[in-house]
Amino acid sequence: MRLDRFLCETTDLTRSLAKKALHREEVQVDGEVIKNPATQVDASRRVTWNGEPLALVGLRYVMLNKPAGVECSARRGLYPLVRELVDLPHVERLQTVGRLDVDTTGLVLLTDDGQWSHRVTSPKRRCGKVYRVTLAEPLEGEALVAAMSQFAEGLWLEGEEKSTRPADLAMREPRVAELTLFEGKYHQVKRMFAAIGHHVEALHRESIGPLVLGGLAPGEWRELTEDERAQF
């Protein structure tokens, strides 16, 4: 890796600021001042900037219990970003693995490993996501039987060219549903229930594939174990 890129990867320096730091003789490699930005370095070299050792940050995999009022987008808008809840170096490099609406709570995954993220989100891998859905009105009796059949067959949502993939619907209480999806269309859960005449009052994601939110409180996070990562 070029030395100027190494500096950008391990600090908050831009490429131009990294070159200026090199020109000011602030960077040493194995104890020697280096000014050439094209110098090649790897993990075996000791690189320091103003005497502070630098090290590359490896790929990170995080699960978080997203509270309401937090966005999963890459750029901050009206609400705080979900990655701002994570206390890790270079947190700006973390991207959410799929998204939740700003008012939806529950399990969110973040990573800087694009290939892993694709494996989790690809519909072809049928990675089920389980949601707890609180409805404004009870769903029971014949209406429930009809809804379960419609969700299992797939619904045509306004503006979509294809029907939804088969989804599993069950009721925990008359107003609390459990929905398992195998895809992630825009506002899909709310649109599916709207299509059968029901309004979603609250939405909470409990699991993604084998990963279950567990005991994380709203706003809390932890890094995935190696075994957890390997399940995707």
Automatic annotation (TrEMBL):
Single GO molecular function: RNA binding
Catalyzed reaction equations: uridine(516) in 16S rRNA = pseudouridine(516) in 16S rRNA
Organism from which the protein derives: Halomonas urmiana
Lineage: Bacteria, Pseudomonadati, Pseudomonadota, Gammaproteobacteria, Oceanospirillales
Function per UniProt: Responsible for synthesis of pseudouridine from uracil-516 in 16S ribosomal RNA.
Domain RNA-binding S4 per the UniProt entry, residue ranges: 1-45
Protein name as annotated: Pseudouridine synthase
One of the GO BP terms on file: enzyme-directed rRNA pseudouridine synthesis
Family of this protein: Belongs to the pseudouridine synthase RsuA family.
NCBIfam families: pseudouridine synthase
